[in-house]
Write a structure and sequence with these properties.
Rossmann fold, seven-stranded mixed β-sheet, five-stranded mixed β-sheet, 18 helices, binds NADPH dihydro-nicotinamide-adenine-dinucleotide phosphate, binds (2Z)-2-iminopentanedioic acid
Length: 449
């Protein structure tokens, strides 16, 4: 990573020195700093206030042991993390990832990106992220419950409705949030909106489950409309088959597109007839099975093992909704060669910097994660509002607010890009617009932390 601006080069060199062996975190920081070059040149006050030097260092990081007993009576030990990155504009807010690949680098990249994403929503939420290297796959409900309880026994000392409000992410859905909420309540003896993504019966928001995927499509729709295009009649490929992927597929289909491929970490299905979401939902949400089961029930479909093959399926619109760095340069070139016109990121950092360069140099519309997938956390903030007011809005009310938020994010991102001479570069626009609000708040609040 090289910077024309000397100050940014120094900040980045310091971050590299202080965080060795954290490639995902350095990648996320590098991408943001690169976008801030025109801001730094125009805003010496931000440089003088040391805003960027402070922003790249988390306000606080908590690493803890999570021990629990499996069904066979053996003691298991995992590592838990919560990085409270930035609280300039609101309580720390961000999901909890449960996946064997979780380490400090992964949680720090996610926490860092969350600062800008949360700022873009226009709602009062700071940035944070947590997780553990616990793998929920193949575990019984009892094992997941005991892990979640042990995880929360430590985490509850550091969070609260006005301090830090975790939510779901990979491997953390309504089941895990429920077990964590129950434990928080038992220990703290308070019924507050300390977690979002709760089930509806005890304070969850309608439309939160759908929000990230729906919001991704609302953002994409806006980006397409500005270019005189829309979803109707388009072929869509969506990686993943989890929470984000399923509801992105549902909304894309409602908007008139045909979703022909979805995946999980073992491979992808191709269904030229358009995926049958009833089958996907049952397999994934109810039975917790592999996507390779789908062709056994739907004869028009085939299953191909391996993760990256999905990007070779011809499509007009690609929505990566699985995990970081899932689209590399080679996969990006395949999408371009097959005539893809738009890529919007449902997952966090799914495209490598080389892949983004391929999209941008070939004139594809590119919706970066911080903007395109912000609908999930935005609706979490709406869940927090409903919890504070002790009332609940209808599905239609929440969905309408979500749509409004996504349209505004698109407009603000497009405007920031244009204001800084980078018209159409929504990746830079998202970083700049998200940054400026947080920078302003940090300057008002003074230097001491
Ligand atoms: P889920 O756990 O519900 O689903 C994750 C999906 O991605 C599964 O299909 C999973 O397959 C696949 N996947 C996970 N890791 C890998 C990997 N290393 N290689 C290939 N496939 C993989 O998670 P979500 O849908 O909630 O999250 C998906 C992405 O969206 C993540 O990047 C997350 O950070 C991001 N996101 C989530 C939000 C939310 O509200 N949930 C909000 C904004 C962003 P398998 O089952 O085989 O592991
Ligand atoms: O990456 C994300 O924005 C999320 N996993 C959702 C976070 C939240 O607090 O709802």
């Amino acid at each position: 990573m090289t910077f024309k601006n000397e100050y940014l080069a120094k900040v980045y060199a310091d971050v590299c020195k202080r965080n060795p062996n954290e490639p995902e975190f350095l990648q996320a920081v590098g991408e943001v700093l690169e976008s801030l070059e025109p801001v730094v040149e125009r805003r010496p006050d931000i440089v003088k206030a040391g805003v960027i030097d402070r922003l790249v260092e988390p306000e606080r990081g908590i690493i803890f042991r999570v021990s629990w007993v499996d069904d066979a009576g053996n003691v298991q030990v995992n590592r838990g993390f919560r990085y409270q990155f930035n609280s300039a504009i609101g309580p720390y807010k961000g999901g909890i990832r449960l996946h064997p690949s979780v380490n400090a680098s992964v949680i720090k990249f996610l926490g860092f990106e969350q600062i800008f994403k949360n700022s873009l929503t226009g709602l009062p939420i700071g940035g944070g992220k947590g997780g553990s290297d616990f793998d929920p796959k193949g575990k019984s409900d009892g094992e997941v419950m005991r892990f979640c309880q042990s995880f929360m026994t430590e985490l509850c000392k550091h969070i609260g409705a006005d301090t830090d409000v975790p939510a779901g992410d990979i491997g953390t859905g309504a089941r895990e949030i429920g077990y964590m909420y129950g434990q928080y309540k038992r220990i703290r003896n308070e019924f507050t909106g300390v977690l979002t993504g709760k089930s509806i019966s005890y304070g969850g928001s309608l439309a939160r489950k759908e929000a990230t995927g729906y919001g991704l499509c609302y953002f994409t729709q806006e980006m397409l409309a500005a270019a005189g295009k829309d979803f109707a009649g388009k072929t869509v490929v969506i990686s993943g088959s989890g929470n984000v992927a399923i509801y992105a597929a549902e909304k894309a289909t409602q908007l008139g597109a045909k979703v022909v491929a979805m995946s999980d970490s073992s491979g992808f299905i191709f269904d030229p007839a358009g995926v049958d979401l009833k089958v996907i939902k049952r397999l994934k949400e109810v039975e917790r099975k592999r996507i390779s089961e789908y062709p056994k029930e739907v004869p028009s479909a085939t299953f191909t093992p391996g993760c990256s093959g999905i990007w070779g399926v011809k499509c007009d619109i690609a929505l990566p909704c699985a995990t970081q760095n899932e689209i590399d340069e080679e996969s990006a070139k395949k999408l371009v060669a097959n005539g893809c016109i738009a890529v919007a990121e449902g997952a966090n950092m799914p495209s490598t910097p080389e892949a983004i360069a391929v999209f941008q140099s070939n004139g594809l519309l590119f919706g970066p994660a911080k903007a395109a997938n912000a609908g999930g956390v935005a609706t979490s903030a709406l869940e927090m509002s409903q919890n504070s007011m002790r009332l609940s809005w209808t599905f239609e009310e929440v969905d309408a607010k979500l749509k409004d938020i996504m349209v505004n994010i698109y407009r603000n991102v497009a405007k920031a890009a244009a204001d800084y001479g980078l018209e159409g570069n929504f990746a830079a626009g998202a970083n700049i617009a998200g940054f400026l609000k947080v920078a302003d708040a940090m300057m008002w609040q003074g230097v001491a932390y």
